[in-house]
Design a protein that fits this description.
148 residues, alpha/beta, five-stranded parallel β-sheet, two-stranded antiparallel ribbon, 9 strands
């Protein structure tokens, strides 16, 4: 399986990578830590699975480039690019927040998929609330990955 993991938190990225490798055989995991690199990644290749955080910085931190802008709905930009490209890569949203910002409005997690589906035509397979103190996120993660 070819996976793109879009996550700016190294701790969360590691936890997701470990869980993913325990569930399935992964041929390759590409990592993007900002909207810019995630969009570049989806333009360059297709993936069997994209694991997407919603709150992301605008670009990677680098010398001479300036500080990245915090984008509470940066992951939506990645979905818009997938929509523009008419791609069908499976997308699983993993967020640590109980609500996500979509077009300036806070939306509760159970409503996110239907709300996004009104605006973009992408293969959203689910959304998971990441909570390191609980095993529920791993159980839900395994369920979604097992359905691929």
């Amino acid at each position: 399986m070819n996976v793109l993991l879009v996550e700016d938190d190294p701790f969360k990225e590691e936890a997701i990578s470990v869980a993913l490798n325990e569930i399935i055989v992964v041929d390759h995991i590409a990592c993007a830590r900002a909207v810019q690199t995630a969009v570049e990644s989806v333009c360059a290749a297709s993936y069997d699975l994209i694991i997407l955080d919603i709150a992301l910085p605008s670009h990677d931190r680098a010398l001479g480039v300036g500080n990245p802008k915090s984008m509470p709905s940066g992951g939506v930009e990645v979905l818009l690019e997938l929509n523009r490209l008419r791609r069908s890569d499976a997308v699983l949203i993993v967020t640590q927040y109980p609500e996500v910002e979509i077009w300036g409005e806070l939306v509760r997690l159970p409503e996110v998929i239907s709300r996004l589906s009104e605006e973009v035509s992408v293969n959203l397979i689910g959304i998971i609330h990441f909570d390191q103190s609980s095993t529920n996120w791993r159980l839900n993660f395994a369920r979604f990955i097992g359905e691929l």
